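Okay, can you check this protein?
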Amino acid sequence: MRIFTEAAQMHFFSLPGLIAVILIIIPNLLFMRKAQETKPDDLETASLKVSRMEFWSRFMLNFVLPLMGYETMGKYWMYAAIVILVIYYICWIRFAMGGCFYPDIYLKSFLGIPIPIDIFNCLYFTVVSIWLCNFLGLVLSIDYSVCRLISATKAYHDLKTREYI
């Protein structure tokens, strides 16, 4: 599999990686500021250690994908990433149309999938890393996904028990 033989094919820059990172960040920039107004101050998420691991793996992932370029794996992985991105955008649009109520990020399921914004975010990074044959990106995306989903699940359970839901 080409993803494991990437070292000989590495370039310094990946335009598809840069585009992939920018496209996944756009909805966060558009909607999260408004959503922060309705975020509970005492929202229970994962431990500080998991939160830090999530932050650093996401931070490094945003640099690894654009700055480490390789040969792409094939168009099917690119199409899968596009489908996941479209579903991710649909989830954000639903969130915005619902008034950007922060708990909806966790509590509004999509096609029966709980915490869809987080799940499709994690899937997107994993599929893009595979498509770009970026092994380090894949390792970081798996680390980010595990930490993000632990934190999101904890927030989901916390919000589920609240009175206003």
Remarks:
- The mean pLDDT is 83.
- The first helix runs from residue 15 to 36.
- The radius of gyration is 17 Å.
